[in-house]
Structures are given as structure tokens and as C-alpha cells.
Fold these 2 entries.
Entry 1:
Amino acid sequence: MSERFFPDGMPQPLADSTTLPFWEAAAEHRLVVQRCTPCGHTRLPPAPVCPACRSTESDWQEVPGRGEVYTYTAVHRPMAAGQDLPFLIAVIALEDAGGVRIISNLVDVDPDAVEIGMPVELAWEDMSPDLAVPRFRPCAGT
Amino acid sequence: MSQRKAHIVGVGETPYARWGKIGDVTEHALACQAILRAVEDAGLDMDDVDGLASFAEDRNEATFLAAELGLPALRFANMVWLPGGGGGCAAVGNAAMAVETGQAEVVVVYRSLCQGQFFRFGSGGVDASAAPDPAPPTVQAANSLMLASVGFVMPYGLLMAAAAYALPTRRHMHLYGTTSEQLGMLAVTFREHASRNPRAVMGGRPLTLADHQASPMIADPHRLFDCCLESDGACAVVVTTEERARDLAKRPVEILASEQGAPQGYGFGPFSNANVADEIYATGGTEELANRLWGKAGVGPSDMDVAQIYDHFTGCVLMQLEDYGFCKRGEGGPFIESGALSWHGGSLPTNTHGGSLSEAYIHGLNHVVEGVRALRGESTSPVEGAETCLVTSGACVPSSAIVLGRR
Ligand SMILES: [Zn+2]
């Protein structure tokens, strides 16, 4: 099991057949974005149609899991019992992902030290054997 | 067509109360009360009403209300899809389209909220005080588009509106140097307006900038007083044709234009729109809508005498001021600091009822009510001679707006 950052009682993702492959890859610690097969446009959250070319064909591109903070908020209300506060929600602009941004959390960082533009990298959290959640921490050495 | 131009001829509301304070009257009974009062205000009879309109997530379906209210015939039953309060002005716009096209003669737009009788908005139904579920988390089935959208970000704890709308606001602060004090001035200004409004839930609670700065942080940069109230209550407005409006009890207010919509990829706003174009992320998402609205109305921001701007969070008001062209992009903070929004000599007295921050959170339909009162000279913070008013609904989510005018 990975390091833990959030309590077991955190809200769980609700998936449908469009979004489930994202979580199946996450369970294997692979961060994926959806990629349109004909035109290559990448997208998150997963959706049934490519907004660029309207194709319904897509595959999943594994991305390196580095990026920078696009925006963030420090939340002072718990979403689960026993949760450390504040916790950080951020939008991360991913590198090498076709320009896709992902909503996630920042961990292992003092909320007062967070800045827009800060480089971050993946920090997987295994909530259970069935569920891993991609979170982000400041890049080592920054 | 001019004989059928849509006007608002009646407004009404129930008393407003804090979240959970109305427990002995059902939400739909409150809706009925507000509708009855608005129709009475118009000088119309309930037998004249042949249309009902509301907006997203309304639990109080028009068809049931029509039966309860004894409408002789329901010719127009309409609900807008824009989420949360985003569709309030769109519901008025749809009512206007219905009467202008002859689909109906008298349409009542309504909103009732008794959130204490349901789960708390923003909690996602999650009770953080409860012991964690002993079963290990798994991925569960999302059985609606809403759940698929919110469900994708739930494991990050993104459930509270205060957190979601903090995201574009934080980026606005980064890009333009917008400050918490500037946001606080909005809250202080609207509270001051509420002080004269006997309907305002927070009317008797003065607020200073120091109070704002000392209030607990909810989701940075949103402090408690950056967040709208959670309220119980209902309100309604009556829309009919110019021809009908002429003979009624109160001075009719013309709906000069209405617009609704969202930019590409906007979805459920900051819960799901992290990939909208960079140039619209730190905005209210309403600039294009605003341009269409002004074009249709034949007036512009400098022509507005007063405004009622949807205020779920202070930052969303600030970004709308830029979207609607009251100031340039990035200059919302200094515009607020200039005192422009104040009833005391401001160039654009805004939320003269106190808004959702200080009057009540009725998903912004109370802003339409106030817009009408402002142009009738009935506001408790009256703007003398006001002839034009912008009303907006939602922002940072799919949104809508109307321009009201009187001749
Ligand atoms: Zn494509």
C-alpha cells in the first residue's frame, strides 16, 4: 500500500462506463487521459464524444504525471471524519498530455507555500485494493 | 408583436428565513404562497395564469403546482437546464418567449427553497462527522450526468460550492492582483443595502471590512462572508404581454432582452470545467452572453442605472462585472474599491436588496424581484429615476441574464 494522505471515509468516485477506464488505470497507478483516435485531441473528464472532431472513437494515453499548479484552494471544511485541515484542491496543467488540466489534490506541502505555477508530480494514494487516487506533491528538489 | 412584448407585472415572496428555519410548511406550499402573492401584486386572478416556469433542480414540478393552484389550463410548463441558480433569468426569458409567441398569456416564474428539509447543498450528502464507512472504498456507478460529472471529482473532496468557485477566483487574484479586501468590500456593500430591507435575513447584522477579514476561512480565498446565505423561502414573478400589462395594478417593467448559455466546454462550471480555454477560466464565463445581451437590448453597461448581480460568491460577482463590461478585464477589484456598487452615490448601485449574500439565497430569483422593485421605485434602497436594470443568474456556471427597462 502507498502512503496515505486522506482518511478512508473520503467520498468515492462515482463512475459510469465512460469514466470507469480512468479509475481502472488508476488502480494500476497509471494516470491516463482520453485521446481521440482520429484527431488526437486529449480530454478530461472522460466524455463519449471528441469536442474537437465529434468522433466517438477514443483510446487512453498514459501521461507522465508531472505538471504545474494552474489554480488551487485550501479547504477548511472536512469531507470525511478525521481529515487533516485545511486540505488542498488544485487544478494541475499536465505536461505531455496535450494541454489537459486535471482536478486533484496537493499533498505533502504547506498550504501557505503553494503558488500558481509550482511544479508538481504524481503521488498515488491507495484508498483500498480497488481504488487508487492520483494526487500531486511538489516536485522533488523544488 | 409589440402588443405582445413581454413585461413583468407582479412580484411576490414568502418571508425569508435562515437555512432549516421553515420546517412546518412544505417547499411546494411555499412556492404556491409566493405565486399567489405575485399574481395578487399584479392585480391578476389565478384563473388568468396559464403558464409556469422554473429552472434546474426544481423539486416543485409545474404540473403539480398547477393542480394545487387550480389553474384552469396549463399551456406552458417549462424548466431550464442550466445548473443551480444559473437559469433564473433564463426562466424569465422563456416565459417572455412564451407570451410573445402566443404560447401562453400569463406565465409565473417561481423558485422555492427549503433546503433544511433536504440534504445540505454543498455537502454532497456527505456527513463528515460520521464514522468512516468500514467497507473499503470502491468505484461506484454514476447513474446520472450530474453524478458522472461531480462523481469524477468527489475523491478529491470537491463537493462544496465554496471550494469549486474558489478555483477561478484564486486564479483571477494571481493574474490581476485582486485582493481579499476587494472581495470583502462587495460583501460589506451588499450588507449595507440589506440594512434597509425588512425582508433581508441579515438585515439587522451590520458587517465591516474588519469583520469580513476576521471571518473564518471556508475555502481560500473564500471566507465565511464571501459565501452566500443558505435560506428557506420562495419568490415569484409574473410575465405577460404589453397589451395585458397596460391595465394592471402596478407599473409594468419591460423585459428588454434575455440571454442564456455557456462557453464551450463549460459543463458544470468549476466542478468540471478545468479544461475550458485559458482566457475564460478566470472569468464568470458570461462575456459572450453579455455581448449578445447588450446587442439584443440595444443598450450597454454604461446605460444601466442599477444592477442585481448573482452573488453566490464575491469573486463571481467581481468577474461578472468585467464580463458585462462595467470595467475592463482584471479591473474588477479597483472598480469595487471605487465604491461603484454602493447605493450611496455609486455609479452602479448593485444588489440593492442585499443579494444572496445578505437578503436571502433563493437561487437568485429574488434578484429579478428586486430588479422589478428598483424600476417601480419600490426598492428599500431606491435609485431615483432608475429606468434600466441588469439582472444576472449564476456565473462561473452556465448562466443567464435579462435587461429590464421602463418607459
Ligand atoms: Zn477528435
Entry 2:
Amino acid sequence: MSLMNVFAISGSAVSAQSKRLNVVASNLANADAVAGPDGQPYKARQIQFETVASGEGDVAGVRVAGVLETQAPVRRVLEPGNPLADSDGYVTHSNVNVVDEMVNMISASRSYQNNVEVMNTARTLLSKTLQMGQ
Amino acid sequence: MNLLTAKIAAQGQALELLAERQKVLAGNIANADTPGYQARDFDFARALAEARGQGGSALATTAAGHLDTGGGAAGVTPTVQLEWRTPDQPALDGNTVDLDRERASFADNALRYEATLRFINQDVKNMLSAITGQ
């Protein structure tokens, strides 16, 4: 049944978008982080989507291929009084761009909603198909 | 082909193709954020015409009085030829999904599916009333 595959396809998209939302949440939470567990400043993460074949035919779902660290330069702020400052008095902050992350968040949430709507439509159609001839 | 169910079988083919298209469109919506994804679709009218042309009649008409059962055998699974979408506004990452267009097509296709279901249901009702004679 073709419509059953809609759930697999849209489900994969919903899962991928929620992972993207997780990464955004992590970035936003660490926007002001000065040092991570390894002593290095937090590097913003970016998610990478990849098309995945759903088995039969050419119709495909989506999956997360990987989570990459953003190559944007870190932010150095002059805070001579900070105990973490280097010899020049600069503290290295994370390279999270809060505006970028907010845009990313809205985009992920819209895509999530779109795919949920697709699944709802498919569910309605399937239940009507099951009632066929009654 | 059974003359009683010929109409329903024809509607069934349309239903199958509509479900297939729904799946393709769901795949496009799922991959709206995947870099390099090429949106796909197929010509429903042409696929249906091809499906109807397949098979031929199951009953041979050997006398002038025989009823023509028409083309389009039941039980023939329609096959579709997927094509690529031509993007109106190509994205920098090579993605050719136009979300507005995909959503419109998805809603349109869902409505067609529901309409076809209603036709089938009405055909069943008509047949039942013919059988029961009430």
C-alpha cells in the first residue's frame, strides 16, 4: 500500500528535523559558553541532511548524515578582569551566531509542521480507504 | 473482466496511482531541506491512460451479440515514470523543491483520492441496491 510509505518518508523527515532542532537548542544553550569540558570554547554544530531511498522505487526519505562543527571564527572579547582571559586580556567565546540559530530553528519547526500535516492527511485518507464499501 | 465490477476496478487503478503520487509528493516535502535533492513527480493523466491501455479485455467477443468488456484489465498494477521538476527559483544548494507548489499538489491529490473513494463507495451502493432490488 503506497500510502503506508508516506508514514515512513514523512516520519524520517520529522525525525531529521527534530534532530536539527536539538542541535539548534544545543547551540543556543552554549551561545555564551566560554569553555567546554576540554577547556576549548564551544564550537557551533551544524546538521547535514541526506536523501535516503525508501526501498522500492525512487521515492526517498531523509536522514541525518552527520553533525559538523561550524568553521566560523571564534569570538574574542576583551575582558582583562576575567580569570579565563589570556595574556592579552582576551576571553575566547563560542562561535555561535544567535541570529543564524533562530532562523534555523524557525525553518526546522516549519518543516516539522509540514511533514506532520502530510502524515495527518495520509492517515485520514487511509482510514477512509479502510471504510471503503461500508 | 466482470462487467459488474469493471467500473470499480477502473477506479481502483486511479486510486492506486493517486496513492503513488501522494507518496512521491510526501518524499518531496520530506526533502525540502536536503541539499542537492531533485524534486520528482509524474503525469497522473498519462499514467492512468497507460494503465487503462494495458492488459486488454479478459473475455473474447466471438459473436456480434457479445458485450464488449472494454480494455483495462483488473489486477494490472500501474507503473509510473517519475520525472524531474523544473524549478522556478533554483536554490543555491541544488535543491529543487518548491514547498508551496508541493503542498498545493499534495492537497489537490488528497482531494482527488477522496473523490475517487466516494465514486467507488457510490458504485458499491448502486450495485448493492441492484442486487437487493429494494
